[in-house]
Structures are given as structure tokens and as C-alpha cells.
Known about the structure:
1046 residues, alpha+beta, 5-stranded antiparallel β-sheet, 31 helices, globular
Amino acid sequence: MLRTARNSYICWRCLAAGTDAAIPAKALRSRRRPCTLPGTSGLLSDSRRAFSTTNTHAARSQQSQTPVDSNSTSTIRDDPLDESQRLNIRDRLRLWEKENPLPAEEVLQDISAGQSWGNFLTRSQTARTFTDEPHGQQSNPDLFDGDVLSDLRGQTSSILAGDLIETRFDGSRLPVLGICLGRHHGIHYFYMATGELLPYQSLTSVFTVNNYVDPAQLQPLVDILPAEPFTKPRNVLQHVQTPQALEAASELQELLTKFYADAVTFYQSALKFIERASEQVADPTKVKYMSLEELAERILPAFLKSGGKFSPHNLYAVHLALQRDGWGFRPLNVRWHRRNYIYEVRPSQDKRILEKVEERVRKLIDAAYLRPSSAQFESLWEQNNLGRFIKRARKAIQANRATRPWTPHGMIGPGDALLGDLPQWEEADLEYIRFMELWACHRVVPKSSQVDSLASTILRLTQMYKESDWVAHWTGVTFLQEIGWIPPWDIPARYGYRFPDVEITRDGRLQRPPIDIEKSLRPDIAEGARRDWGDDAKIFCVDSEQTADVDDGFSLERTDSAGEYWIHVHIADPASRIDPMSPLAHQLQTLPSSLYLAGYSETMLPPELEQAFSLDPEKPTLTFSAKVNEDGQLLDYKIEPGIARNVVHMTKEGLSSVLPAQGQDLGLEDDGHFFAVGKEPGMPPPIKQIAQAEDLTQKDKDDLLLLDRLGEALRSRRREKGQLPPMEARLPSPTVSFHGISEKRHPTDMNASRAWSGDPFIKFGRSPYGRSEQLVEALMHTAGEIAAKWCQSRNIAVPYSTQPEAVRNASQLEKLRAEVADPLTAAGKPYPQSVRQELFTLIGTSELSATPGPFYSTGLDAYTKSSSPLRRYTDLMVHWQIHAALAQERQTGSSLAGTDCAEARFLPWTRTTLAPLLPALQARLRQIREVDNRDGPSQWIFQALLRAWRFGEAPLPRTFSLEVDDVVATGIRGRLRDFHELPATLPLTRMGLGARLADAAVGDVLEVEIADVNVVTMEIEVQSPKAPDAEERVDEDVRRVEDEAA
Length: 1046
């Protein structure tokens, strides 16, 4: 503490930051004024607060040369103080705290623990693992972190004993190597290069070398693994040691050290090739997606290969180089990145923008320190294009805030008024906007990049975000909304779509290169060979009233044998006309699925083709037929092209009204369990004729009831082989409507800002999963089973869905199902999260394979998805392969069953050519699921919650019930049990007075209230409830009376 004779004590942080209030006026005049731009109120000096104990050499030199005014008041007085003013340090601190009360603020940790931010620029990077992670109790962090089990399970389920992996903890730049010991006692163990033997439920690996160590060499370490993981510390070797285990650990340490040393040696020897990677690979304007092997082929000369390929440590050297280039290369998604998976290669123009903005920001800051007068500041501001951009942006933000309120929650508030004048931008301005878009929306740089500080500096210079605790990437999203570049409700999740030759536009659409559709079509490959299903085969198609791309339907045919029936699953047949090697087919391969993100849906096929092949009368079909009995046994199967004649469209509600009301509907009914904000639009009219139950004949109803019984018999057979029961999704499903929103655009300038009036209607809740959904699912699985069996019998390569980890864990799965899971299912109870966690971990991730294998989740020995060729490219591939084989059989007059067609040239793909395509296809499909099923819905839900909590657009309870899922050093993580199971965090700083983390346990239910919502990071912070004031109690009583009356 420092004190002047006539002023309060001054905090050293305030003094170092140069806060005007902390320094007497005369003292300010007696030394060099902190550098500010006109109207910035010490903004540039604020940017040094994080490093306030460090002074630049230039500043010290200039201050030492400044003569001291003898009449000025020095910051530190030399005159002695009275005895009454001589206080000890404790009393001084108490006095200062009373005179300067400040709220507690969270301080950035060197390496963040469960936060969306961290200091990666000035603190040393260490090989810190979670040995010292203070997890007191842990339930299911993987489920909490988003419930993307297909992705999270993939981290460890594909890693086997003896595999070498690299991981990076908490966004750190420092790689840590390790060797997997395999799965033991329900958890994976890894020997890390830090000398630790650690357990992990899910470990993100960004580089893998399979079979690097003989598993037998790991046995001494496996022998000391505990039945329950150790805590405090988690390192097994600090609790149990044997001479054999220490010797094995020493050998692994040598192998890891040698691998890294070999990679570094190669890196240095090939430096002239590796350092120019971006120049060699990047396209000037387009984003590329390439595997590590493909990048090595482009970057390294062929003479560096050994035995015709690059060695693992060569590839690891390239991987290290790509990771160091944080702007040019990045794994497409580190959650499911593999050694042969995809890197995103940013175009040269984007990298130049990042470098240019970095240079301009630094120049502006440096130049500002050399301008001692306001006039010179103003001149600098006008001459510098960054300064001009900031002034224009500030003006646009101020105008926007007159119509829409700002929030620190990752989005701006609702509004109905339109701006009068739309801001226009110079060419240089567009570069800064693009920079902010890359940083805030696309997130093209890792957490540890200095781009965070550059972008935050630009935002701080606008002076419009002083009230924000953190000027982070979610503030950047708000900035783009406030200047009218993106809509106020835009969700950053949609920028997670990353496909070759596909651009994400401002208006929410995906821009794909134009394709000549006619040149991509061929004559019907099944012409003259189609079965006419006639009017007797009534094909039932079950979809919503607004579904335009109807993929599938089903019909029933009775046989002459009692108790035996043909179930026909009729699938739309675009594959018969689209050439599999055409430009259109190639484009579909890069965007291999329709997108179903609420508000931003996109069809995979062009609309005209979608309508041409959507299932309807007179449309072609590829029909998968199964002959079954009432015990669910598959007696025979066949595949044949056909023509649909009698098609009946129904909704799932209409079908459910015909089926018996048996079993349990998983999910919540639409009776008070849906949450909505905004003005609900009217129901649009159906786009096709929908049949109701009363429109069906008695025979139709009898057929549907019989199909329901057969479907249940098929499910029963599959459950015996492991098929999982229906499970409720962790996230509710949102619906979004832009009805009633008006948009204002500049008449001539497409790069000008835009304005919007009104806000989306958002509604979310859990839809029931009833008999109609179960019937359709059973029949579609039947179609996939038939397709797999048919192709397997001819050894035809197609994208089979497999779960190899489930095969390896068959005995553990059988035990878990028999002792825990199946009794819960029989009792009609849902699986607790801990059971789901263990079950899904044992099942592992779903992998596409060119060879068939068991698919545990459906209880089938072989399975390939084949029921949605209008929506999924892999289904189209299956149809193309089948059509080619059927054409060959018609040409030769004999069946190919029993023959080996793996490398047959009449097929579009042989096994050799298909297998390399599957990793990239799987990566793209996973990122689509991540956006459509997780991030996108979450951000819409959080928008609705924010609009209700902050702006009162929908009623919310004052308090919520938080069920504890995890207790960590920084607080408690759990779910709002009475509000759609949304994840929430109770930080230690927001816990009530006297509350202790040690008193919280997994499964406890705490009463909390919302303290903060972040739409971009999808985080809810809660706090211990405060006592309501008198007005709040009255409002709560009124709401209670209204609820009771309703």
C-alpha cells in the first residue's frame, strides 16, 4: 500500500495500472501521462494490467530523464507521518479494504481447469497432467461435457494396449507422449512421458502409433493396477511399486524419449521442407482438408521415405510442425482426431489477414505510446485504417444499442425497431471483420494462440465492452452482431460445418459450387427390371407433415405358409439415375449428409433431385424384403428395384393412434414440458396429403397391427444379441421459426451492415418415443441388416457400421447387461448416468469399415445404413454397389452369391478403393452430428433461456434443483433436474456463506438460482439462492396463485 498525506491508501495494482482515481492530480502532472487515445480513458494503459509489475525499458528511461517539479506533490511523501497515522500493515490493509470495497473477481489460472479461458501467453507451459487434479468425486464427466458419446468414446475405444499416443492437456501447447496399457477394471491406463501411470475414462489423442510396444512388455505394470483408481495423487507408481514394474516403466520411458528425440532430429534435418509447409500446401482462397499422410506426401521429398513410406517418427515430426503453425493447420476436430484423420489447411488469404491484423494492432499500440498530445493522437487515429475502423464500429454499435440492448452473455438482446442508416465498410474494414469472424465464429486458432489477445485489444479499443468481465471470443460474436454483420440470434455452432469447397455465408446458407445436374445423370440402371408393386401393395410412409425428402416406406405381404410374411422396406432410388463417378456424386462426398440444424437446414441433394426421387406414386424404389415368422426369425431376404404405385403418407401420431397403447413412451408429453420464447407462428399447411386413422381400411389397420407385432418380435431377437433399449436423449430438441422477422439490407452494397426487426420463436422439449417410432426403427434396421447380408454373401465392400470395441469387451458387456442394465429395462426404469457411461464405454465408438463386423447397438452380426439415400451419402454408396451387382447378375443370368466381388471391376468401388475414403467420410459425418445434435441445439436452448432469464420473455422459477454430477476444486458441476436436465456449474466463488465442497457428494440435489448464461460456450453458472426482497416475494406469490388457477 502507498499513501499520500491527504489521500486514501492506494492499491499497488491500481498504482501500477495508472488508474486516475488512484493517483493525485499533481502527481499525474509530475510524470509522463499514461498513453491514451482521444476518448479512451486510459484504455491502452488498461491493456497492461495483466502485466502491471513490468515496466518497459523505454518508459523507465524517459521517466528518469524527466525533471522533477519541486512544487509538485510526489506520489510517495518524504515528510514524516504523525504517530497517530503510523499503522501496522494489517491495520492499513483493513482500513484500505473498508475505504475501497470491491467485489471478488475470479483470477485467470495459469492452466485453466474447466474454464473457457486461460493464460497461455505469459505463463510457462508444463507437462502438467491430471495427477494433481483435485477431483474429489467424479460421476460422469464425459456425459456432462456434452453427451457426444460417439465422439468422446472414440478417444480411448480405438486405442489398444501397446499404442503410442500424444495428448495436450487443457489446450496447452506442450505435447505429452504416452503408451496405452489397455482397459483394466473398467478404465484405460496410460504410462505418460512425465513418468506417471494414470487412469483415464476418456483421453483425447491427437496422434497415435498402433502396436508401438508389445503388450507383453506392459504386464509388470498391469499387475500393479488397482481395482479402484487411486486419488491424491492418481499416479499408480506413487502408491504401488515393484522392481519389475519400475523396470518396465524405465524401458517405456526410454522408448518414449527415443521416439521424441528421433522426431526432433528428423524435424531439424528436414527443416527446410517442413518450415515451408503452408506455402506448399495452402490454396490461395479455399480451405483444404487433408490427412497427415497426405500432408507428408506434399511436404516431404520422396527420398526421405523408408520402405516406400514415412516412418512414424517422420509423421510425428510433421505433426509437430503443423501444431506449431497455429494459424495455417489445425486438426479438424481434436475430439476425434486420429493419426490418419483430417487437418484443416487454411487458405493463404486468411493467414495473410491474421498476420496483417497482428502487425497493424501492434503498430497502432506502439505508435500511440509515442504521441504525447491529443492532437497527435487524433491524427494517428485518422491516418491509421485500424483506428478508422474502430471509430466506424463504435458508431455502429452505439446506433445498434438504441434498438437492441447489449449483454455480456454471447448475444445481444431482442428488439423490434430497424436501424435508419446501415453502416458501410471500406475494403480494409472488411479485413478486420473477417479477422473477427475467423476468431470468434470459426475458431480457427487454438486456445493458446496470441490471436485472442489481438482480437481482445481491438474490442477494448472500441470502448464499448467496459462492463464485460472477459473480452473473449464470445464478446467477438456480440461485436459482429452489434455492427450488423451477422444476425442478433446467429449461433456460432453453424460455423462448425467444415467441408471442402463449401462456404458458410452471412445469411445462414451454405454456398456450394454450381453443378450441371443433367451431366451427372445416367439412364436408369434398372430400366426394364423393376417390379411393379401395383395398387395391392400399400406402402406406408411415416414422416412429419412438412417432410419433403421422404426416403422410406414399408408394406406387408402375406405368404401361403401360415405365420410367415414378407416385410418390404421400400427406399427411394436416386442411385439408379445419378452416376457414382459424376461431379454431383463427388460434391455429395464432400458434404455427405443433409443438415438438420434448427433454423439452418440444408438438403444433401439439389432440391429438384430430392423432389424427383422422394417416395410417392410412380417413383422408383429399391426394395429390401425380409421373409420372417412371428418369432422374429429371418427366413429369407432379397433386394429388387421397383416402382411404387399406392403410397400412403402418415404422421407418427396418426400411426400411433392405430397401434396398441402398450409399453412406455420414453420422453415427455407436450403438456407443460415444453419451453418457448417468442411469438409462436401458426401451423403451416401440410406439403403432402396426410392420411388419418379414419382414412384407413380395416385391412390397412390389420396390416399395421401385424407389422407392429413382427417388429416387436424382431426387436426381441436382437435384444438377445445385445440391442440397446431406446434411450432418452440428454438434450431436448429445439424447433426454431423466423416467421415475422424482417431484414433490411443496403440496396447496392452487399458488404454493408444489415438490420433485423423481431426475433426467432424457439421452442424445446422432449418428444415422446412411442410405438410408431419403435416400429419404424425396427423396419429400417431390417433394411440395413438385409443390405449387409446381401453384400456380405457376395463379398462386396460397402460402408459397414461396426463396433470393434464391443467385440473385445463382450464378456464385460454381458455381465453388465445381466446384472445391472437388463433388470432396469425390465422394471421400466431408465439407466442412471453412471450405467450409461460404463455401457457406452464398453461398446465403444461406431466405425465405418469396408469389411462387415458385429454392430452391438442393433444386435446384428452385420449392418450397413441403407434407408436414407436422399439424406446420407454412405447410403447412396450402398445403393450404387447393389445396383451394379444386380445389373451384373441380370447380364450374366446368375447370382453372385458365394462369389468374391471384393475387387470386381463392375462395381463403382472395390475394397481397395473404398477403404481409404471411409475415414474422411466418417470425420465429416461426425462433425455434422456434433453440430446438428449437440452444439447447435444447445446454443438455441441457451438463447431461449437467456431471453427468458434476462428479458422476461417466458416465466422461469426463481430457484432450480441442481443434481450434482461432479465435485472439483473449482466448484460443483451438475444438471438442472427440474429444467430439461441442462448442465450447470456452481463455482466455489458463488457458493453460499459457510458452504464447503467437502459437504457435496455426487447425487446430491442443491437449490440454486441462475447467475450467468453464456450462449456461445453453452455454460450456465448458478449460485446459492439469495433471500428474495419484498417485491420478489409478492411476484412469486402472484405466480404461484396463477399457476394454481391454471
